Automatic annotation (TrEMBL), chain A:
Keyword set includes Transmembrane: yes
Domain of life according to the entry: Bacteria
Record-annotated membrane-spanning stretches: 36-56, 62-87, 127-152, 172-198, 205-227, 259-277
Keyword Signal: no
UniProt-recorded name of the protein: ABC-2 type transport system permease protein
Keyword terms, alphabetized: Membrane, Transmembrane, Transmembrane helix
Any single Pfam family the record assigns to this protein: ABC2_membrane_4
PANTHER family per record: INTEGRAL MEMBRANE PROTEIN-RELATED, MEMBRANE PROTEIN
UniProtKB/TrEMBL annotation, chain B:
A Gene Ontology molecular function term of the record: ATP hydrolysis activity
Family that this chain belongs to: Belongs to the ABC transporter superfamily.
Alphabetical UniProt keywords: ATP-binding, Nucleotide-binding, Transport
Originating organism: Pseudonocardia oroxyli
Domain ABC transporter: 22-250
Gene3D superfamilies to which the protein is assigned, alphabetical: P-loop containing nucleotide triphosphate hydrolases
Name listed for the protein in its UniProt record: ABC-2 type transport system ATP-binding protein
PANTHER family xref list: ABC TRANSPORTER, ATP-BINDING PROTEIN
UniProt entry tagged with the keyword ATP-binding: yes
SMART domains reported in the protein's UniProt record: AAA (SM00382)
Keyword Nucleotide-binding among UniProt keywords: yes
Location of the region described as Disordered in the Swiss-Prot/TrEMBL record: 316-355
Amino acid sequence: MTAVAETAVGPERTAAPLGRLLAAEVRWVFRRPRTLITLGLFALIPVLVAVGVVVADRNGPGLIGAVAGNGLVLPIAALTLALALLLPLATAMAAADALAGEAAHGTLRGLLLAPVSRVRLVGVKAFGVLVVAAAAVLVIAVVGVLAGMVVVGSADGQMVTLSGTTLGFGEGVARVGLVAVWVLGQLAAVGAVALAVSSLTEHPLVVLASVLGGLIAFGVLSAIPALDWLQPWLLTSGWTAATDALRDPVALDAMGSSTVRALCYAAIGLGITVWRMQRRDA
Amino acid sequence: MTAVDVREAARVTSGSGPAPAARAVGLRKVYGRTVAVDGIDLEVPTGAVLGMLGPNGSGKTTLIRMLLGLTRPTAGSAELLGETEQTRALPHVGALVEGPGFHPFLSGRENLRRAAAAEPLLTSGAIPGAVDTALERVGLGHAADRRFRGYSLGMKQRLGLAGALLVPRRLVVLDEPTNGLDPAGTRDVRTIIGELHESGSTVIVSSHLLAEVEATCTHVAVLRSGSLLAAGALSGLLDSGIGGLEVTTPDVGLALSTLDGVGAVAAPGGPGIVVTDGPEAPEIVALLVRAGVAVHEVHRRRPRLEELFAQLTEGDGGVPSIGTEGDSGVPSIGTEGDGETIGSATIGSEKGVRR
């Protein structure tokens, strides 16, 4: 290709730098009002849990009961609660906007015409979804730690494990971090599947409905005793594993297997997305 | 006068450049049972301004989308700037297809910055300047920081145009660029197309405003029901279309009988008669004058694009929406000359089918 007289343009490139694309995507994600509102609402979850703990009977059983006197347990409890429904929905919302929403606005066309290659576009979009999920998890974890310290009290900055031992503040925060990373892995699986649905439609609501329906279906399936054999295949069946982080020493079995499962879901979801995007009309 | 010959016209199109800016070879697109584009061969010479004409649902947008690689053709292939893999050419191509696509919650400037971030030819440092220049060029400088949500239809269209002009382009594709624009906006678009043409860019513009196309385009391609009815240089098409001599005279009867005597085909029309076939012009004039016909004025009839278009797309009133066209759907231009039929009517094609 011969050089055309072009001023103020860069070298002969056929693709924009990846870093610039990712930065533009993150910028776009955080300029979207609903992302910000969602994150704001997520900040309320640990606060509500904290209030609930204060109000409720301090000797109540279960995870929430265990929060009493253990400020650092609160973020883990809040993450577990949110993982059941709200975090997957927020992730699905980001994935819905990423492809179906862009297609509906006619902006997907613009990106493909720039051009951004279709495989690279999936990569950029997956990154954007992951950033939203990470931001949501981070908000819950950080606000959870703060709320735990302030509202519940730090019990001298210590965390009482389910095993009865106590951990120092640093170790406690590390446990919260471990749970946060594990939750993010699960959300990556949800996000990848949601992206796959998103690549198949141009109606963002379809993506949300699919993820919501999927969660409910998985919940029903896992509640049927005759379908026990199905458990290892269901993404949601390992979603209570976060409590293992409260044992001493930390029990990684359940978290490990559910992470492997999540990575499989993520790989399949991304594979479908790439396959579909290469054929999609925009 | 001979009828328009598509193949002839296509050859005219292909002759004038080294590598065509865009080429379609047997492009065909079928959605379910609907044939949107039915095997189109087209070459757009470099530097041309090609007006793509056709009634709604004639396949203009589908053809453009296949040329740009947005839609995979059912059969055939497309080429952009000599590249069979369109993405290699796309950095040099600006396009506004199917209306402007932007995010409602971002300002016009933010929207353009996001689009510019994906442009391979823009360095990161050049983005703000390129965005401002494009905004000024389409006359949106004053509204750049307002949210896209609050833009009027015309402003949205202008922003879409700005997106296509972010980088100096070798090819600009504009699908209905004057949609929703006021007369001033339409004039602006015409100016921009003129500037692009002067700077050597190739422009493909689809429109149903025939006057616009006639004013700005060097070439035209006329589509109907997914088929190419005619393509070629505008002047060539107009000359070879409905031609004839227009003779202004008060002695219509005498003139007609005189011409009838030498086997010329003439009919009353306009302020006198119209001769559509017969001897050369000087001979006709001499005949008439010798017969004592008062000839005020004689000129070669050059039809307006509108007449040509109507003639090319007639047969179903130009609205192929019902899908009942049978063999009567074959355009009539080919039949009055050498009897050759041009293009093929697609049976059952529907209006507005794209996706």
